[in-house]
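Fold these two proteins, one after the other.
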Amino acid sequence: MTTGTSTDKLRNIGPKSAAWLRQVGLRTREDLAAAGTVDAFMRVKRAGFKPTLNLLYAIEGALQDCHWQEISDERRSELVVAAEAAIALLPPPRYRPAAAPVTTTQMGEESSMAMPSLFDEPGERE
């Protein structure tokens, strides 16, 4: 079992972010530190979640033990450039072709009269 401060208890990391991090195997502060800010962010992104730059800054703030808004503009820029470079290396999304148009067929009254209902008693419609 992993020891250390749970991501649930880290500064800047809310319940949704903590859940995302847990789902990608980052359960403690030590796990986050070993991965690093950008790699932790990219693990969440590659897992199919839709993290924003706020998560990137929140992870950095958690590792620096400061509020994410206290991260310098220079460091934020470095993180964004690194994250954008990592995102550029991701394979393009696989798009599925759009499904064929859905058509709805409605039965006329005469057709529905001939069809038994689940609520009809046996022999009621003859």
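Now the second one:
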Amino acid sequence: MSKCQIIRPVVDLLDQPEGARQRQLIWGEQVTVKDKQGGWAQIVAAKDGYPGYVPSAALAAAVQTTHWVSAVATHVYTRPDFKSPDLHSLSFGSQVQLLSQGERFSETPDGFIPTPHLSPLELHLKDPVAVAELFLGTPYLWGGNSRLGIDCSGLVQASLLACGLPCPGDSGPQERALGNYAPPNGGNYRRGDLLFWKGHVALVRDCETLVHANAFHMAVALEPLQPAIDRILAQGDGAVTAHKRLL
């Protein structure tokens, strides 16, 4: 087994070579490679232990990353000049190695990134809901994990990881792993609470509003809390299965 990292802005994590997307990995994410055959690598993601397959060409030997993209998205430029050609678009959470840091641009081995879009790896945000709100309007994509497209559990994971909180990749494991307190009587909603349904998860923005990536809006959207609960029940997707609070 070897340690590698993702060198594409976004890559699908498949259940088998040429198979179905289960999740996605983004630039700089660390993985353990278990096997390589026929242009495919069998890997396990370091952030959450998610297994799957990615093209071998999407990997390079792991290096020590120093910063992460804390803007919802950014560009990598050929020169420290916003008019120079852009090489890549990176999503929130991507990890990079800085060679030098300037007031406006920072140099990486792959080009120059606007310095205000970067934060040191050790810097964590404080409010998962504020992170989720960065993604408002992002298209819904089943299994998505980036600003280009994201699903409900991908949004929750990105929001919690940015705040230094471990988080599985799928809503089922999230329901089992997250929160050691369940508010009583299906009420008492507080900012940052998590509501779970079978196959879905949402963040409570305030006592009257959810923020979630959902297939009804086909985007990350704000939705009135109780009408959302009623809508999901009416469309046949069931009642809330858990209300969790992170302490």
